[in-house]
Design goal:
By secondary structure, the chain is mainly alpha-helical. Helix content is 63%, strand content 11%. The protein contains 6 helices and 3 strands. A hairpin with a 2-residue loop joins strand 2 and strand 3. It is elongated and about 65 Å long.
């Protein structure tokens, strides 16, 4: 750990800490962490990203785009659906997936925008 990463003196701002601590523990952080954990998989983030670019896709199309089997793709889509990040509809023998709502789309889009910005600065 670098000395630049740590305060040089111990100084706790009690009022600020107390106020923020009470807000932190009234929020559901575990559920949010599970969302990020679900998206931390490379295949699932690819799926989520293409679903921000195209409103709805069938499982076969998604599998072809990410170069995966339909079984693997279905497994990842099922997990995204269980986490409340994606939804599906069946049309005959086809199953179409989309992201659950605009909040999910925004999180994915912002993450990609942030990555593009920070990777430009690193070059």
């Amino acid at each position: 750990m670098s000395r630049q990463d740590v305060c040089q003196v111990a100084c706790v701002h009690e009022e600020k800490v107390s106020q923020l601590k009470s807000k932190l523990y009234t929020q559901e952080t575990t559920g949010v962490a599970m969302i990020f954990k679900a998206l931390a998989d490379d295949t699932r983030i690819k799926i989520a990203h293409i679903l921000t670019l195209e409103e709805e896709l069938c499982v076969c199309d998604i599998a072809a785009i990410i170069d995966a089997s339909t079984a693997t793709t279905s497994h990842h889509l099922r997990l995204l659906r269980k986490m409340g990040l994606a939804k599906h509809r069946k049309e005959g023998k086809l199953v179409y997936y989309s992201l659950d709502d605009d909040h999910v789309k925004d999180v994915i889009k912002i993450a990609f925008e942030h990555h593009l910005e920070t990777s430009r600065h690193l070059l």
